Amino acid sequence: MKNLKRIMSNLLLAFLVLSLLLIGNVSFPASAASVPTASNGAREYSLTFNPDNYVVKTFTLNNKTISCRAYENIVYVKKPVDIKYEVMNIYVPEEYYQGKSVGAYSAGTAPIFLPNEVGGYMPGEPGGPGMDRMNKDKPNAALVALSKGYVVAAPGARGRTTQNDVGIYTGKAPACIVDLKAAVRYLRYNAKRLPGDTEKIISNGTSAGGALSALLGATGNNKDYEPYLQAIGAAAARDDVYAASCYCPITNLDNADIAYEWYFNGINNFSRMAMTMTPGGMQRSMENGTMTANQIECSNELKKMFPKYLNSLDLKTSAGNSLTLANNGTGSFTEYIKSFVLASAQQALERGADLSGLSWLTIKDGIVKNIDFDQYVRYVKRMKPTTAFDGLDLNNGENDLFGTKTIPAQHFTQFGKDHSTVKGSLAKAAVIKLMNPMNYIATQGTATARYWRIRHGAIDSDTTLAVPVILATKLKNSGYVVDFAVPWQQGHGGDYDLDELFAWIASVATVK
Ligand code: DHB
User: Fold this and answer.
1) Dihedral, CA atoms, 476, 481, 485, 490, nearest 10 degrees?
2) How far is CA 197 from the centre of its chain?
3) Cα(173)–Cα(179) distance, integer angstroms
4) Which of 43, 202, 295, 433 is deepest in the core (most CB within 10 A)?
């Protein structure tokens, strides 16, 4: 009888604990939010956001103190592979806990700014408000967002070099985008526990991070990602976002080589930043080189492949005119590309820039009339020798991205595989597909973000201008609202125009 009583009371206790967990009213700080799973003993993390687990942080911007509640290092999936990266930092303006508003926003309406920290398809730890990494005198995007009343949700993500204790790669494609989607799901799953409007999530990223922002924007809720999300125990919630800001996205990787050579073919010198690890830290130096005969031959071959791809997209100008290229690589698409550079030069001129030294520009009476495209491309300069992305020796970062648990690097184009100098294998078509937003824009079963802001600097040659132009045009042609521009004298970088970025965010966030 005594035993029966004890069993009954134990059962009751277990039932109470279980039901509290299930209805989601109990949550723990990240470090304590785990219960062992029955099967393999791995820890499971609670997906329930704990509103009490914060520290107050203050920042100064323009002599104004900004106070917020900082929820840091929240594991955003139930079964993380790597809790260094599958964690998110959330910052909420303190005003929202006092029933106040910041500008036009309140606790219920504040959009959520979601910057990712990924660069080079490397792993990215979650960011947060502070000073800009490149320019310590300027606030970063997260701090500006916070000052304007946005809730900042900064997720980390695994990347191409992430490995576990026994040397298995854990962050190869599509891990980075799967993680960011899981972070979005976490926010939605906790919509009622978190200040901010989860229907107004605005993603931001630069370069590889810009590509991931584009993927977040393009692929919302598509079920191709579902098995990967399930595997890490992502919350059962939608992962579409409202708007995507993409600075110099290194995207459309499986077509980036043919686009690059269509653009830079004939320029055989290259100039790039080489980074080498030394005992004293990372050393950067300019590496100048001339392409080999074999590289030039590959460039010629790849260039020829681009018109077929471009024409297959059936892109149109906003007036409805077809954008095409003849087999020799010339056509209305070239004129279209020129139009963005021309608009950029015109704007620079109107802002007082002296463009008189640029022989590739024809300027008359304060109007930029024409650009000599070949000369402009020479001015931009080739940064990467052929092949720019799918390295024939598997030595590019993108080869790494497409590795597997046990294969460090693979090819991701048929050309790369066919010309491999190291007998490299080809990544699975299904994985390559998952990394390219072009495959998902406006497709059935996908919620593509309605608002887009895409920037590619006029002297950025990490990828060709054709890549973001194609992305922006595909989006526009599919009915999305796209703000695309090519900032003058801007190289590879992001977050350099925060006033304009936040003016855009404010304008799209307040659309009813
Ligand atoms: C980045 C830059 C590159 O040139 C590239 O190929 C991939 C990523 C970056 O800065 O993230």
Assistant:
1) -120
2) 21
3) 11
4) 202
Alpha-helical runs (H) found in 66-152? 141-147
Other Cβ atoms within 10 Å of 62 Cβ, number: 7
For the chain, 512 residues long, give each residue's pLDDT as a single digit of tens: 444 445 444 444 444 334 433 333 333 344 445 555 545 667 899 999 999 999 999 999 999 999 999 999 999 999 999 999 999 999 999 999 999 999 999 999 999 999 999 999 999 999 999 998 888 889 999 999 999 999 999 999 999 999 999 999 999 999 999 999 999 999 999 999 999 999 999 999 999 999 999 999 999 999 999 999 999 999 999 999 999 999 999 999 999 999 999 999 999 999 988 877 777 777 778 889 999 999 999 999 999 999 999 999 999 999 999 999 999 999 999 999 999 999 999 999 999 999 999 999 999 999 999 999 999 999 999 999 999 999 999 999 999 999 999 999 999 999 999 999 999 999 999 999 999 999 999 999 999 999 999 999 999 999 999 999 999 999 999 999 999 999 999 999 999 999 999 999 999 998 76
Give residue 306 CA to ligand 1 midpoint distance, Å.
21
CA angle 502, 109, 129 (to 5 degrees): 45
CB 129 within 8 A of CB 143: yes
Q: Whose CA is nearest to atom 8 of ligand 1?
A: 120
Ligand 1 pocket mutation, candidates 134, 250, 255, 435, criterion most atoms within 8 A of CB? 250
Q: Which of 118, 176, 207 to mutate to test the pocket of ligand 1 (most atoms within 8 A of CB)?
A: 207
Positive or negative, the CA dihedral 284, 289, 295, 299 is: positive
What's the sign of the alpha-carbon dihedral 171, 121, 505, 314?
negative
| Residue 505: φ, ψ to 5° | -60, -45
Backbone torsions φ then ψ of 233, nearest 5 degrees: 70, 45
119 CB near ligand 1 (under 6 Å): yes
Cα-to-centroid distance, 251 and ligand 1 (Å):
9
Residue labelled with tokens 């919509």 = 191
Q: How many CA atoms lie within 13 A of 226 on its CB side?
A: 9
What strands, in cross-sheet order, belong to the sheet with 451-455?
55-61, 64-75, 87-93, 151-155, 111-115, 197-206, 243-247, 451-455, 481-485
- Pairwise CA distance, residues 147 & 135, whole Å: 19
| Amino acid identity, position 481 | V
Vertex 290: Cα angle to 284 and 294 (nearest 5): 120
Confirm if 390 and 232 have CB atoms less than 8 A apart. no
